[in-house]
Amino acid sequence: MPPLNLLHLADLHLGKRVNGFDLLPDQRYILEQVLDLCTAHNVQAVALAGDIYDTALPPSAEAVSVLDAFLSHVRLELKIPVLAIAGNHDSAERLDYAAGLLSNQQVYLAGQFTSAPRRVILQDEFGELTFDLLPFVRPATVRHCLPDKSKNALREISILGLRGDAPIKEASVTIGDTELKLAVVNGLANAKELLKEIDEGKKFYHLIEVMTCQGGCVGGAGQPYGLKKSKEKRGDGLHLSDNAAMFKRAERNPVVAQMMAEYGEERCHELLHVTYTNK
């Protein structure tokens, strides 16, 4: 058995529309090319690293069909295992649908975070290859899963130094008897530089988060247009708001609880997200 060839995909955003233009035909064409790549390069595992759909509620039934056709071909025709995680655009709960059943077909989905990454073990000629599937996790979810939910523990996490728009940010946090080394990288050029240092043995991390958008999603293309200073103010405002918030976990916020009870998840998602249209 040769070394495992892994094809890494991310940010498919199936069903996305830009200024009213439907990108799905182009997305279907690109996925067809990906299938050709799998055959040409003897790919033995496909990773889908988040934002599979463009919105939590898939934009159309056709977008769901495109994903279904792609996964079916990868697994049933090419016999390639699939490892997929939810991104911040996906609905973790919806992505988890039939995850147990699909795992029997080597389509491994990790939608909701439940205190530990989902572990998948594959094989190549050198032995076992371990993949820990960690989906997009909001701070409120992490807080809910932490064994220590005291103010001191939350304060320690908030001052780790991982916020801001510095190209590479590093921090360490001790959980139990283990010191975890963390890094957050803004921009793919900086990610390449960091990976080079790791390959050379100069750096080591347990977890690295790579953000294509400078400063994270707050400075991304889906946000209102603004120059660097505007984005910095926006990020600072969010951090200050989070630090001053009385409720650190959404399920304890009585306003959110009342909205969920009265309107349901899908209607709340519509109310709490902004939609931009041409004028």
Provide a descriptive summary of the structure in words.
This protein is of the alpha/beta class. The protein has ten helices and eleven strands. It has helices spanning 24-40, 61-77, 92-95, 99-103, 139-145, 151-158, 188-199, 228-244, 254-263, 265-271, and strands spanning 6-9, 17-18, 21-22, 45-49, 82-85, 107-110, 118-124, 127-133, 168-175, 178-186, 207-211. The strands form four sheets. A four-stranded parallel β-sheet has the order 1-4-5-6. Helix 1 packs parallel to helix 2 (61-77). The longest helix is centred in the first third of the chain and has 17 residues, at 24-40. The radius of gyration is 20 Å and the shape is globular. It starts with 5 loop residues before the first strand and ends in an 8-residue tail after the last helix.
Structural key phrases:
11 strands; alpha/beta; 4-stranded parallel sheet; 3-stranded mixed sheet; 279 residues; 10 helices; 20% strand; single chain
